[in-house]
């Protein structure tokens, strides 16, 4: 286990908390998708009464799973990354690089907030609905994009702050 | 020379695609040095599921749209896609003219979509794995794959079990393995998607006629000079009529291909079709009532034929 | 000019990957940056985010997290361990038999799911600890798991073939059949190659001591550290499997019974038309839950929650990669890069064989940077006219494309299966890439054989 920086500022504990909430929400979405898909199989096979909602809702649950869980995965340093080069750098250069990449991460996730919100609003304005039978209002799944982006932005800020804390510590 | 990006999908051998290729060529020749349409085929940029939204947003200038896929966004379009309301393709083409076309264009423009031209496809028939549909009773308990709410509603009223739970990529396997019994598709479309391999009993019912419009983002459209707009729509109109003519020839041609590959193609009797129409009419009327005066007017125009 | 552009693109790509920035974010960031050149700032961002959304908005992808969850449950309930011990017992005293067991099990997964990610992650969780105990090197472990993962879409059912059939007017049933013989050949070749490499590796080394719990930990720790803190990875759940005790074949069968039943239920359910292949993922997860809670009684609420949380986290990571890959794929499409390369190739008026060779190189190159479906959607509309023009057999070409698409999964820098193996096994990515060389070479060899002996692809479908 990596030693935690001695004392975490309240704000950063709060950020970790938001990521955890995202992770739990994403786990619940996964469990829900598992159950509704099995439910679909049962009602279709046993009663010839397929639902009109499972196919579509399971897609949205899986979108939520990905978008809300991304910050939680980041908090746990779990995203795939290639560290062959980074491992060969001096500690100082590695920290500089990490600060730089975390800034990149902040920029990337802010785009998800801004553009995601724009799209959600667009879907709301033109009352866009899904192609399937459900005609699900699309501003709802679209809203997951800025929410996921926000969680990610916060966690990238947290990671950036950690790098600065390391220098002092 | 300005580029107009066109996103398309589906097999390039389909007559709608070949007519579109001609449209692109002829437009590009006429507008050489000023505008150039560049095609991104095969669903590279967007597929039928999201195309209309992408065009509305302006992510692409032009898009090939599957009309039934945009019914949720522009509900009034259901008026020209009411199952069993049109006897043949010419009636549908007629609905895309005059007063009813104005209603439809207004509705699309409210969603930032400009209709450039309309392509027509052959009628939607029934492909069954369980034998041809001869009577309404044959529909009882039939698990029909569906993506359309109003079609599902009519099928359910006729005693069938419409199933919207199987995604497109799994439909072939579902029919092969017996999860589903039947699927609604046009003769040409069904042949391309290999429906007859797993559901070889084809009953001609002309349930509805899906259209494939080429749409342009309204802002992009408004930025074009009037003469360029004119070139796009006039050549487009010509190609649209060409698809109308081709639809009939291709349907006949592909009916033979289906038979050659072991499918049984039959037609439903007028008597049985009339029984279905009685049930369907209730559904159309309910739809028109729920969708306001323009929908009422559209249904009126449609039923006058 | 074009060459310069392509080189610039690759350099930027490698820089982003080398920065240690998570791959998914890096690809997306780079893709948005490149897109700005084509459409301007605002439009690029809009299209990028739209692409991110549509990439996730897919019924095909629903099965991925569900199968990941199943994989976690198979590991947590001890079902995987029982299955593996049975395979070991039945395959006799050969340690290299474990390699065969891995490939065979992956083949079963491929026939169940068609998802390479899932096959690789499930087999990774179960097989890596066992392979380690049998003293397979990290490189050879990577060979086994990446090879197994690459079977996913060759053995039917296969989403690649469905897309191909739809876009080119070819029978999907025949296309499925066409993948069968190449798939079985791959299983045989992989198993033989693994056994051979294992022998070569062992030669000249002292016989492996009897495995003791904890001994493998020493090998894992530095590897994990080199992998950039993968010790904390959600995959770091590789259990120190309990000591393997030799047992009778009957006992092995009894122990593994419920586990062996799982693929039968899943395959049976799909083939008897009870559920679709993606739905099988949900059924599989529920089945494992029931076995774990009520039959093996190895699953506690705590273990269950852990499995759920780590599945959610892994799925989120996959989603981030899918988004990044989709955004970079959009740039490749938008820039019409493949068309320009292809135009260069076709214009030269080459002999059919040379043209085919160049097309394969082109597909291999694209596959390095694109994920499977992106590659297929891009390649078919581009190459199908060439197939028609040259009068090639469509089914034969479909198989060639299919194998190239599967190669894409295990070729760096954009090879999803590579990263999964690296994370699950806490194996440094360079070792994984080295290990993946084995299946890559075998697939390329098979590709060459199929080019010269088309009947491998066309015989079975012709029988229908
Ligand atoms: Na498969
Ligand atoms: Na690759």
TrEMBL record, chain A:
Its membrane topology: Multi-pass membrane protein
Signal peptide: none
Keywords associated with the record: Cell inner membrane, Cell membrane, Membrane, Transmembrane, Transmembrane helix, Transport
Annotated InterPro entries: DctQ, TRAP_DctQ
One cellular component (GO) term of this entry: plasma membrane
Pfam families in alphabetical order: DctQ
Family as reported in the entry's similarity comment: Belongs to the TRAP transporter small permease family.
Full protein name: TRAP transporter small permease
Organism the protein comes from: Desulfatitalea alkaliphila
TrEMBL record, chain C:
GO cellular component: plasma membrane
Pfam families in UniProt: DctM
Top-level division of the source organism's lineage: Bacteria
TM segment ranges: 52-75, 103-128, 140-164, 176-198, 256-274, 280-299, 311-334, 354-383, 395-421, 436-460
Span list, region Disordered: 208-227
Cell compartment(s), UniProt: Cell inner membrane
Keyword terms of this UniProt record: Cell inner membrane, Cell membrane, Membrane, Transmembrane, Transmembrane helix
InterPro entries noted in UniProt: DctM, TRAP_DctM
Single GO MF annotation: transmembrane transporter activity
Transmembrane as UniProt keyword: yes
UniProt membrane topology term: Multi-pass membrane protein
Domain TRAP C4-dicarboxylate transport system permease DctM subunit: 10-456
Entry-linked NCBIfam families: dctM (TIGR00786)
Entry protein name: TRAP transporter large permease
UniProt organism field: Desulfatitalea alkaliphila
